[in-house]
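We emphasize that the prediction below concerns an isolated chain of 342 residues; any contacts that depend on oligomerization or on bound cofactors are therefore not represented. The input was used exactly as deposited, without trimming of termini.
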Amino acid sequence: MNTIERLTAVEDPALCAEIVTRVPLLYAEGADVILDRPAHVRSASSIRWSGNRLAVIQDDAHFLALIDPSDLNVRALALPAGPGGLRQFDDLRGNKAFKLDLETNLVVQVEGEELFLAFGSGSTPERDKVAVVNVRMGTADLWDASGLYAELRCRTDFSGSELNIEGAILIEGVVRLFNRGNGAPRDGLQPVNATTDLDWRALWSYLENPRARPIPTLRNIVQYDLGTMHGIKLTFTDACLAGERIVFAAAAESSPDVTRDGLVAGSALGMIDDASKTVRYGLLREKNGNVFRGKVEGVTISRTEANQAYVVVDVDDPLAASELCVVRLSESWRIEMDRPSR
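Result of the prediction step, given as a token string:
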């Protein structure tokens, strides 16, 4: 096995990230018993731009939430139902094992059409799927990617003790996947924060026909030490592009393994600079300067304000709405507005 590059993140006090607005995400349509849709967005796990709306995926509810940033109106696009026609999965229902655990999004252009790809975490075989959504058409399909996920698990320099995909970006023809290192030690292996690169064309070709086309090769595996908060490891929960910069979200959660939640000490936003091989982050704070104690699971950059981001917070309660937060970033981030062409 090749030597693995390892990068250590540095907390940078100049990278200030302050929550200025917090809004619970409630569907304008309300609940729908037939579709098994709750009245609110549950367990938000990633956020991206889809056209002129923010799109939020959820790890335990089979819906894509589409948010108009001008008035925060939230609409739902149903994804394929699970066993029994259900779209909500949790311990209260006793069906948590059947959830897709969609944890990260990727917006791509294929033959002139914008597609929204939501990747399962891969933390169990049930979660080895990719949801492919055409928001304009209002259609969604589930594609099997078990071969790819098996390869990701086998590469323990990337997956560590337990696979848990929580971030994906498309940069210069390459899809970079982020593994969250919040698993339990197993068979002499430790959980790791890591990234790996896959050729986008090879990945799309495989996803279209996984039985006939080769699994894309994993390249450029990098492991990260993101530091700790109150003795709890910070681990990747999402990533996005901001111009040429890679912005990531991380949470300090004492999870017993990748399938169970734990105590959350707080969250951070940071940047990875591929050219200089540096990783910096700042703790996410409330308006009063106190450390924010919630779990940020998704991040994307504003299209109307420079040095502003949107994050989504998973409150780890199926009966409570996830939150959308507007975050003000200090000038040290030097982040411009997101561009729709990206």
